[in-house]
Amino acid sequence: MFTVMWAAFRSSFVGLLAALRFLAYSYIVGTEHRSHSPYTMPHIYSGFPIVQHLFDRGVPDVIGYLRLEGLDVPANIQRAGELFRYNKRVFIAPPWPDIYRNDAERKQDLKTACRTFETMAAVYTELGYELVELPRCSIEDRAEYIRSSIR
């Protein structure tokens, strides 16, 4: 299975390696475990401060990259995407042709980046997330948009 997953990531971003480590735990997904987070089980976390974290990639991205490469999504990875939840609102950055450039981390051409965006948007939507598209503006303004949106 690792070989199949690795093939799916050959043209992807370095950030997916963190998602792979997370998926090492997904073999237990065949049971009826529930995701334990402040968003899915608020009664357990009541009285505790909720610390917000921003993730660059998540389990849904793994599903998206497998689909993008035309590979089957193994049942345990699909189940991990359903169980291991993030905040319902997910920020997504669309490709921006005017500033799109290839570099050491961004190896996809613009056409592939557009397909990746569409695939990721579909996967997150199918998993019940509300997508919030980041505005096309400066990095500083995008950061402020995110900060003001999560306050």
Question: Which terms would index this structure?
Answer:
151 residues; mainly alpha; 7 helices; 2 strands; 5% strand; flat; disordered N terminus
Q: Separation of termini?
A: 40 Å
Reported for the largest beta sheet, the result is: 2 strands, parallel
Radius of gyration: 16 Å
| Strands side by side in the biggest sheet | 1-2
Helical percentage: 40-55%
* Secondary-structure-derived class: mainly alpha
Whole-number tally of structural domains: 1
Compute the number of strand runs: 2
Percent strand equals: 5-15%
Low-confidence stretches: 1-34
Shape: flat
The residue-averaged pLDDT reads: 76
* Total of DSSP H or I helical runs spanning 4+ residues: 7
Helix-strand pattern:
HHHHHEHEH
Structure description:
- This protein has helices spanning 2-8, 16-23, 42-45, 59-68, 75-83, 110-126, 139-150; strands at 89-92, 130-133.
- With 151 residues, the protein is mainly α.
- Residues 1-34 have low confidence and may be disordered.
- α4 (59-68) runs antiparallel to α5 and α4 (59-68) crosses α6.
- The radius of gyration is 16 Å and the shape is flat.
- The relative contact order is 0.15.
- It has one domain (2-150).
Brief write-up:
The protein has helices at 2-8, 16-23, 42-45, 59-68, 75-83, 110-126, 139-150, and strands spanning 89-92, 130-133. The chain has 151 residues and is mostly helical. It has one domain.
